[in-house]
């Protein structure tokens, strides 16, 4: 949508938006939000102070409207727009391809065609000094649900959660330094690493890492999600407005994990954000972090109002992957195991 098309809108529209609840603001299509606010940009900050919105809502709206000057915009063919150009937005047909995305959150309309586009959107969306986490989905049809909780029946979810007890018996003799029996989170992380379903959902502290994973499937449109983990925990437990620590908050963390014998607990209701123990080279290389999910299996804007999605077109994935490799974000650095290094070297040499 062109900014010039909305310059004659009345300031009266702002009052309509100002009387909305935070949830309603996140429910708006971004094109409508731009059309509502663009004419009164100069007075936006003063008016937003009056809104009963979360901090995440306020700075996201402000940052989106301050995106008048963008350094560079490139399309998939490699052409570059001059400095000062307006952001390039997805066309109506391109946006329609994402209508089946199951995650209920604010989805930005920007067209991400280059790494410069991506960094520009990230840097202008996150305008505070608070921490944000990122997650890339190669298929936009995926929901934000941990692997053990994706099964349609509760019985199957319970069976998946109980597998960690069997995993301990098998893995203990094959791992040089296995976790202690009572270190439930360490075992869950290890099981997740080797592909066992767990109540953990992977995130990363690196925006480029998330983009790499979002570009994994060249046949599907992808998504990159970002959220404020402190806000997630603040809403889950107002007494803990911080990212939880695997050691300090072990008692709370263990409530989300199966008992030592594998039997499931009745977990707390809301998901939480946890700084894990970096007990593997892969987790460290990927700057991995986790959300732990309980009774509410799926993460959306209700639990995390700061949750935002960036749409990644399938036809732009190859270009984005190539640009990521130029700055050292590739299979060999993300997956430090030797089999991944060999696969990367073969691909670079053009061998099948």
Question: Can you describe this structure?
Answer:
The longest helix has 18 residues. This protein is 38% helix and 11% strand. Helix 12 links the parallel strand 7 and strand 8. It has 16 helices and 10 strands. The protein folds into 2 domains: 53 residues, no CATH class; 286 residues, no CATH class. The chain is α+β, with helices and mostly antiparallel strands and 352 residues long. The termini are far apart.
Strand content: 5-15%
Radius of gyration: 22 Å
Question: What is the number of helical segments per DSSP (H or I, 4+ residues)?
Answer: 16
Query: By helix and strand content, what is the structural category?
Result: alpha+beta
The percent range for helix content is 25-40%
Mean pLDDT, to the nearest integer, reads 79
The neighbouring-strand order within the major sheet is 3-10-6-4
What is the element layout, followed by pairings?
Layout: H1 12-18, H2 22-27, H3 30-37, H4 44-48, H5 55-65, E1 73-74, E2 80-81, H6 92-96, E3 106-108, H7 115-125, E4 133-137, H8 154-171, H9 184-193, E5 200-204, H10 207-214, E6 222-227, H11 229-236, E7 244-245, H12 250-254, E8 272-275, H13 281-285, E9 288-292, E10 308-312, H14 317-326, H15 331-334, H16 338-348
Parallel strand pairs: 3-10, 7-8
Antiparallel strand pairs: 1-2, 4-6, 5-9, 6-10, 8-9
Descriptors:
16 helices; four-stranded mixed sheet; alpha+beta; 2 domains; 38% helix; 352 residues; 10 strands
What's the short story on this structure?
The protein is globular. It has helices at 12-18, 22-27, 30-37, 44-48, 55-65, 92-96, 115-125, 154-171, 184-193, 207-214, 229-236, 250-254, 281-285, 317-326, 331-334, 338-348, and strands at 73-74, 80-81, 106-108, 133-137, 200-204, 222-227, 244-245, 272-275, 288-292, 308-312. The model is unreliable at 1-84 (pLDDT under 50).
